[in-house]
Amino acid sequence: MSSVIGKNIRLSVFGESHGEAIGCVIDGLPSGIKLDMDFINAEMARRAPGRHKTSTPRKEADSPHILSGVLNGVTTGAPLAMMIENTNTKSGDYKDILTVPRPSHSDYPAYVKFGGNNDIRGGGHFSARLTAPLVFAGAIAKQILADKGITIGTHILQVGSVCDTPFDKIAVTADELTALSKKQFAVVDSAAEDKMCAEIEKYKKDLNSVGGIIECAAVGLEVGLGGNIFDTVEGRLSQILFGIPAVKGVQFGLGFGFAASGAKDVNDGYEIKDGKVALTSNNNGGVLGGMTNGAPLVLSVAIKPTPSIAAPQNSVNLQTMQNTTLEIKGRHDPCILPRAVPVVESAVALGILDIIME
Amino acid sequence: MSSVIGKNIRLSVFGESHGEAIGCVIDGLPSGIKLDMDFINAEMARRAPGRHKTSTPRKEADSPHILSGVLNGVTTGAPLAMMIENTNTKSGDYKDILTVPRPSHSDYPAYVKFGGNNDIRGGGHFSARLTAPLVFAGAIAKQILADKGITIGTHILQVGSVCDTPFDKIAVTADELTALSKKQFAVVDSAAEDKMCAEIEKYKKDLNSVGGIIECAAVGLEVGLGGNIFDTVEGRLSQILFGIPAVKGVQFGLGFGFAASGAKDVNDGYEIKDGKVALTSNNNGGVLGGMTNGAPLVLSVAIKPTPSIAAPQNSVNLQTMQNTTLEIKGRHDPCILPRAVPVVESAVALGILDIIME
Amino acid sequence: MSSVIGKNIRLSVFGESHGEAIGCVIDGLPSGIKLDMDFINAEMARRAPGRHKTSTPRKEADSPHILSGVLNGVTTGAPLAMMIENTNTKSGDYKDILTVPRPSHSDYPAYVKFGGNNDIRGGGHFSARLTAPLVFAGAIAKQILADKGITIGTHILQVGSVCDTPFDKIAVTADELTALSKKQFAVVDSAAEDKMCAEIEKYKKDLNSVGGIIECAAVGLEVGLGGNIFDTVEGRLSQILFGIPAVKGVQFGLGFGFAASGAKDVNDGYEIKDGKVALTSNNNGGVLGGMTNGAPLVLSVAIKPTPSIAAPQNSVNLQTMQNTTLEIKGRHDPCILPRAVPVVESAVALGILDIIME
Amino acid sequence: MSSVIGKNIRLSVFGESHGEAIGCVIDGLPSGIKLDMDFINAEMARRAPGRHKTSTPRKEADSPHILSGVLNGVTTGAPLAMMIENTNTKSGDYKDILTVPRPSHSDYPAYVKFGGNNDIRGGGHFSARLTAPLVFAGAIAKQILADKGITIGTHILQVGSVCDTPFDKIAVTADELTALSKKQFAVVDSAAEDKMCAEIEKYKKDLNSVGGIIECAAVGLEVGLGGNIFDTVEGRLSQILFGIPAVKGVQFGLGFGFAASGAKDVNDGYEIKDGKVALTSNNNGGVLGGMTNGAPLVLSVAIKPTPSIAAPQNSVNLQTMQNTTLEIKGRHDPCILPRAVPVVESAVALGILDIIME
Question: What ipTM score was computed for the predicted complex, to two decimals?
Answer without folding.
Answer: 0.96
